[in-house]
Structure formats: structure tokens, C-alpha cells
Amino acid sequence: MKSILKASIVTGLFLMISQLSFGQCQAAITYVVADTTALGVIEVIFFDQSVVPDSFKNWTLDYGDGVVNSLQEPPSQGLQYKYDTAGIYVATLVIGTDSCSDTTMIEVNACFTPVWPGDANADKIANNLDILPIGLNFGVSTPPRVFPSADWLPFCALSDTGGLNILSYSDCDGNGIIDSADVGPIVGNYGLTHKKTNASSPCVDTAAPELFFVLPSTFLEAGDIVEVEIHLGTSANPAVNAYGVVFSIDYDKNLVDSVAGVTLDFSNSELLDSSSSGISISHNFYSMGRVEGGVTRTDGFGKNVSGRIGSMLFVLEDDLIQKTWDMNDSIVERTFPLSFSDITFIDPSGFTDTICAKSDSATVTFVIPGIDPGIGNPLVKIYPNPTSDHLTIQLSNESALEELVLSDYLGREILRVSDPEKTETIVVEDLQAGSCFLKVIGKDFEFSEKIIIF
């Protein structure tokens, strides 16, 4: 026989409930708040999840507001109940059969507009937009929630007004202080069911400041670690009185290493005065080819910006060339498109302004590192190709071969033969199947040829 003493806090008072429990009964209950705001009521639907070894003899639910409902067994479709006023209630469920009994309690957040930790702007999803109201209200105190939690559940909070500045939503962790710790629930509850949207439209208002990419080079190699700078405004057309900006970037996931992923880095941002003067967020949806993020000030003052506000960091797929080369190609060029979407730019008052996004403005060309394409040489015969065991290189005139270098598709040397014979045979049966490249160096010529090993 087990005896359980359970306690909960309700509006600052301790509610102590003692219930004798025995046997194999396990009481459990969940609930949802129905969307009945327009009707002026708060309707909660309770769902029993109890486990019992035999038939119910008693199922009693105390709603926490003085009303008790006693049934022989739980309703199969859920039990609806309407609370007269918004608030936090502790509902108590007592169940019993001929062989066991058990009790459980659940905190019910009965609110017209509950707070969901991480949804700081109350748009029903936790994402990069939610750092903006935190930045606007940074350092402000608000009444803490009775039960502070970062769980993705609806919580009641003292109501206040002000659109984007609603303090109860900005206090994501519910401790009564709006600070950088409130970014944690956003990250922990970041929405994972986004639908990819279309890229931003081309600029119509030419006076608007630009958001654009700056690539380190037009030519990148497979396996490169890449940093693409993200710039807001120019010296000729700065972003005036900027306070925060969030956005999404769409990219070709097939060209990006899935393990390293994509990260937005806002350290040393032009928008901020120091590393401690703002907050930022980055979340990658690799399966969608999208990364979302943003950065905002927290001091209540705007800044004119004309430079780098962040960087996009990623690693190019190191076996891209092997995957995409045609047998007759000696070089592969792939366009790596980058485009902005879902941009929100605010000033210190929380008002939004227009930003012109330069989408699809960068093209990246992938080349074979360390290999000259070449078109063959009539003086040299290379056979068989493809091959599985050996490769013969035969010089057809009186010239001399000086060196043979076999490399993989990344230019890494596999085998080198110095001072080869005019007819030289290389054993390749122990090499990994796939594409590699043979550089033939003669006294007065040099060329490369792709070799297929199977």
C-alpha cells in the first residue's frame, strides 16, 4: 500500500491534497483549451489517459474552481468544461476500481490569450521574429508567471497591451525579467513545421536600403569552408535608425555538407556596438534548404548601418564533383543560389520599414582543384580506361616521360612515378573505385586525363 502527498501552488497559496492510493491504478489526464475567444468563454476539454487493471467504479474530476464532476467511468470523447473567469486552476482526478485507487493533479491554464514560451510576438510560432520584441523590451520587469516554465504549453500571465510590446509574451521564461535568457525558450521551441516561402520580390522602392550577400570568391572548391557576408545598407544608402532585422535564406542543400550544416553568425555585427549590446538567433532547416536568423539591439537606441551585419557559414559537399561529373567532363560548374525571404526590419519604436533584398545575386563555380582539364595528347596512349586492375601509359615518339601523378577528384595525390619508362604500367587494383586523374608530364608537354576505376 502506498500513501502519496501531493502539492501545487495556486495564486500564491499552497493547496495541500492528501489521497490514499493503492494497487495498480495509474491516474492521468490531459487537456486542451478550445478556441472560443469570440464567444467570450473559456472552454477546456479534458482527456482521460488513466490505466486500470479492471473496470472503473469511480472517476471524479475536481475542476479546481469548486465544481466537482463524479462519473462511473471517463467519457470516451473527452469532457468539456467552461470556466467563468480566466486563471490558473489545479484540477484533481480521483479514479478507482474494485482492486485499486489513484489520484493525480494537473495545472490548467485557462486563458483567452495564453503565453506560449518562445512565442514572444504572439503569432502562434516560435522563430527568429521573436527576438525583436525581446530586444525592444530588454531589461524591463513584468510580473512573473505563477509557474515559470519553458515547456511548449499555454501559460496564463497578467494581461497587458501594446501589440509587439506585450511584456508577458516577451518574458519567454516567465521569471519576470526580459533579458537574453528569454532567447532560450525560442531556441528550445523553435518551430519545425515551416513551409518554405517564395523569395522576396525585387526592389520596387529604390530608396530603401539593401540587404545583400558578399561572397569571398566566385570560384570555390569542393570541401571549402565558406563564409558569405550579409550586408545591410551601403555608404550611399544606409539603413537609418536600424534596431533589429530578421530574415530567412534559401540555399541548395545538395551542395552543402549535411553534417556541418549552415549557421548564421552575428558576432561583430555592424548593427551592434559590442558583443554584449544585442541578441541574435540562428536555426537551420537543412532538409528544406533554409536557414533562419536575425539580430537586434537591446538598448532602445537605433543606429545607422552600412556594412556587414552577419555571416552565413557552411562547408561545401566534398564529394560533389564525383557525384555530378559526366564521363566526358573535365570540369564541373554548379550555380549555388542564395536568396532572402521573410524579412522584418524594425526601428527602436518597433515600427517596420522596407528593405530591398538582393536575392539570387551570387553564383559559385566548382572547379577541380589541382587539375588542368587538358584535352589529351596524341603522343601518349593510356589504356585500358575504364580499368579495374592496371593502367598502361605508352609514349609514341622519342620524347621522354618525366613523371606520372595519379590524384583523386580533390587533387590529393594517390601515386607518383618518377622517371617512368616509355611504356609504363601502373597497378590500380587496390585503389578505390571511382574517378581519379592522371597527370602525364613529359619533356616538352603536360596534360591530364580522367581515369575511371571500377
Notable characteristics:
454 residues, mainly beta, Immunoglobulin-like, 4 domains, four-stranded antiparallel beta sheet
Description:
This protein folds into four domains: 2-110, Immunoglobulin-like (Sandwich); 128-188, no CATH class; 210-366, Immunoglobulin-like (Sandwich); 380-453, Sandwich (Immunoglobulin-like), CATH 2.60.40. It is elongated. It has four helices and 29 strands. The chain has 454 residues and is mainly beta. The longest helix has 6 residues, at 131-136. The model is unreliable at 1-19, 159-165, 192-202, 321-330 and 367-375 (pLDDT under 50). Helix content is 5%, strand content 40%. The chain has a five-stranded mixed sheet, with no helix packed on it. Strands 6-5-8-9 form a four-stranded antiparallel sheet, with no helix packed on it. It starts with a strand and ends with a strand.
Number of spatially distinct domains: 4
Shape descriptor reads elongated
**Based on DSSP secondary structure assignment, what is the total number of beta strands?**
29
Low-confidence stretches: 1-19, 159-165, 192-202, 321-330, 367-375
Task: Give the CATH class of the largest domain.
Answer: Mainly Beta
Query: Alpha-carbon distance between the termini?
Result: 71 Å
Described by strand count, sense and barrel closure, the largest sheet is: 5 strands, mixed
> Nearest-angstrom radius of gyration?
33 Å
Helix/strand class = mainly beta
CATH architecture classification of the largest domain: Sandwich
User: How are strands sequenced across the largest beta sheet?
Assistant: 15-19-12-10-21
